[in-house]
Amino acid sequence: MNEEIAAMLDHVRAALPASGAHGFDHTLRVVRLCERLGAREGADMAVLIPAATFHDITRPLEEETGIPHEEEGARMAAAYLESIRYPADLVPGIVHAIRAHRYSSGIAPETLEARVLSDADNLDAMGAVGIVRTFMQAGEQGHGIEDATRHFYDKLLNLKDRMYTESARESARERHAFLVAFLDALDGETGARIPPDA
């Protein structure tokens, strides 16, 4: 990791809680996934890794400000990158990837780097870590098992079919199977499964 990226990570670390459903640990996992997926797909890492680093920087402020974190995060990333004189021709691609990463943003990722970031962020919502994050988020919001389980049907079980890159599709199939097996086990133990049409 070069010094520029290390400094970016330090900057983002200061803005996020160390852990949580969208804490700095999530950012680090997304960066690592982007490194792996981006290398396989031939992405421009000088665009992808800064975008992954900044993608959730304003997530903790979203509820308070009402500003979508992907919009404010893109603005903050652009300001930071300008302040360190990052190559100006790379900044629009970074900004676009941040704006397009969110599952519910409605902005289509138009570049390979934006697609890889979207895939990496969605992969971190699947599998074992996705299960942990779902229940962490439910707890953070004062919700219980039923609300967490509903999130699987509202979002997580749909992610497998929303992957843009072949590299991510491979991982998504495995992580999706783990989610389904978990829900089967949870249903057997608690009867907590929420039908998709509930």
Automatic annotation (TrEMBL):
The HD domain sits at 23-126
Q: Which Pfam families match?
A: HD
Q: Which CDD domains match?
A: HDc
Task: List the SUPFAM superfamilies.
Answer: HD-domain/PDEase-like
Q: Where are the transmembrane segments?
A: none
Which InterPro entries does this entry report, sorted A to Z?
HD/PDEase_dom (IPR003607), HD_domain (IPR006674), HDIG_dom (IPR006675)
**Domain of life, per lineage:** Archaea
Q: What is this protein called?
A: HD domain-containing protein
